[in-house]
Amino acid sequence: MPQPLNCGISRSLLTSVGPFILDQIGSRAAAAYSVRRLSSVYSGAALRVRRNSDSAEQDIGFTPVGNLDQDALIAFVGRNLLPNSEGTGAVAGSPGTVPTGWPWSVSPFSGLTRTISLGTVGGYNYIDVRYAGTASATTTIQLDPCPSSTVAAAVGQTWVASVSLQTIAGSIPNTNVAVGLFEMDSLGNFLAGSTSQTNFVPTGSLVNYVRSSVTGNASCAFVRMTIRVNVTNGQAVDFTLRISQPQFERTNVSTYFPTSGVAAGLGFVTTVYDQSGNSRNATQATSANQPRIMQNGFVFSAGTLFRPTTSYLGSPRRMDIPTIPFALNSVTTNSVSAAGTNTGGVVVGHLDGSSRRWYVPYVDGSNISLGYNASATAITLSSVNTNLNVVTGIGSAANAAGFYNGTQAGTATVATDSQDGTNWSIGSNKAAGPSFSLYYIGSISESLIFQEAISDPTRQAIEKNQGTYYGITVA
Amino acid sequence: MMFIPTLNLDIAKEVSGAIFSLTRPQSVKSPDDVTQYELSVYAHPVNGQGLIQFPDDYKVYIYPDIVAAERLQSVLSSFVSAQVLSLESANAVVSFAEAHLGRVVDITEVIPPEFLAWSMTEDEARSAGFFS
Fold it and tell me: pTM to 2 decimals?
């Protein structure tokens, strides 16, 4: 949502952690978008994010020093890659119905009967499962909370399985409940010898147990969280185990995030807030077209300093900018972006009704270019690459000029056309239709638009600031 | 990629919005939410027809929330009233959605077969005058 300047935050506090890029320059931006704070007087959020698990949306702001508040982002989007951690679909009874997508052993199982009871604890669902009888084989009771082939993985990744367990009644056979993971191939078959689990002894209290593992099989394509109890042939069995809050995530254990049909960890950008003070927020109301900020519980990052970024991979993704009228001889656009492939499309673009372009930059299979007037590739800035780059395009009364990481790369003959400014967007030009060649395939961290040709000192101040923050060498 | 034409852009948006409604619980809705649609839509520059775009293998999650199915029924009823969709087809799609609450399904399962029969490729859509 548009935020009034200085709303609720004292200016003295904000200025104490600057300087920010818009504070350092004399020109007033027409629109300014970034994953970091750009101005000491802007008090709104950086992004509005939609999480995939239930499509709820929330604004994500900045840390006190002006970085994207990644802790708030991760807390909102979540990192639980189990699609149904809350066990929806379960029905109490004997044998009862197991939660949707939980591949439990069928019942009766090796002479054992199963009874399921349901409830909540601490606001989260639990399942009490009782097995009773005499085991007719030495085998394993499977209580996995995770379908076989839904969590993609690769060799060398750290995975953390956690779950709260409690012995409600009886004794767990052979004392232990194993918690961990199985590695699976691309067809969802178990990979022999690729099991990582720890035996825990659940007590009479609900306790969270954690097992961290690194995948070790080169054929690993999926991982499956497992909860298992071993029984021995002829063993008398009668126990009730409470299972609650299972979570399966990458890298680190984090606060439990409940899911009930769709895994967490995937976050989309619905709004990039305009920090210029002009409330020209860039928005995308169609979920299929929204860029991503998180995937598999990780925040997208770019460059040598791994700063957060927004991903436009998987076209078509685009953020639409409200009208910014301008003329081709009086405009500046600056962007920080990294092409994900060699056919990257348009980072920040405008296309008027007569096919006059302003693309800063346009990436194709050969070059990174400034799209200007009648040509999408009017000024070649660099050969194509996938580095994080700073690109500035300036249309002035003298000429149109393109700058690549601080170095002027060329000029074009000035045109004086005035544009109605209705087709601005980030990640394409708004008039692109389904033409995928114009949709940017890469990451975009920052975009500035001015309704004027900024001066050389102003351009250099902007580019130096961006170079320092994002770790880009700027001439 | 598949493209399905509609009588106008509003209808395309309504269908896209109804499909988005299927994917989310009503409980998390906020007045500040930006997202309204699931799929890209386009308007024909001359005759005002709408066009819905989605990948061939696109899947949607049907949230276990009966209100979402009601929204789908409401949208499809308007097509039935306009006599571009049979009541049987509309009921079949709604029944499918209600029977698959909490499941991930192919998007073609929640679009009536009459509409899918009108689907076209990007080249065919361009030939019909879209995107010009």
Answer: 0.91
